[in-house]
Give the backbone structure.
Amino acid sequence: MERELIVGADGSEESLSAVDWAVDEAVRRGVPLRIVYASAWERYEEHKPSFGIHRGRARTYTEHIPAQAVARAHTRAPALKVTSDVLAEDPATALVRESAGAGAVVVGCRGRGELAGLLLLLGSVSLSVAAHAVSPVMVVRGGRQNRDGGFQRVAVGIDEADEAAAAVDFALRAAELRGAELRAVHAWRCPAHQVPEPPRAADATDFHQTRAEMRLDEALRAIAPRHAAVSVRRDAVEGLARAALLDVSTTADLLVVGARRRKGHIGMQLGPVNHAVLHHSACPVAVVPHD
């Protein structure tokens, strides 16, 4: 049985769009949805007495956010089991911890900061959750047609075949649930083509193209048969991986990438391709850990 889906909500329009998307995803998966609102301010507010009209504005706002999100979810899918939690801690910390028991965590591409009205671009909560969560993380972004499943296509980026299994399996399952096509993309580059007026020897191009196609076949061979109903298109594309994935995102309902996390002096970090798609994808992005 699949585990519950968690969605972070903070009252912003972007997070409410994420709630809508998470409701549809939970219905597709047949799992409960848990709405989580977390704020470090709660640990201070909870120590202050607040009764009737004297309650603080922060407390009133806090109670309104999850109630609004739950009501919105019930309106969209009355039969879906929806619960909510208010947690007195940093949002990224809370969502990362809660990810250990979730099938996936859904977040919006932007959100409100701790100061009312302060909008934070992707790079704070969403990036931190994507870099540290135990479960897959889905960032809801892009145009309405992409978010609403208008293209009937899921895309997955494949780098090294031996590291792609988790992302490929997630993408195939997502395509199966949507009745969509899967487009598997691997980008390759020929060093001879990176210099001015490069030689265009057919054999060099053919070698790299063939090797890229073999990587796609290898990544899909063991997993695709478990999702036989899904039509799979293989695309070996010459160029930068981030450019190839951003291009395919324009006509996709979901873009899936593996999380190659690297340990740095400031902790776990996502690679440059992950950053590029999280910031610029035209459709929702699922980051699936494989380390």
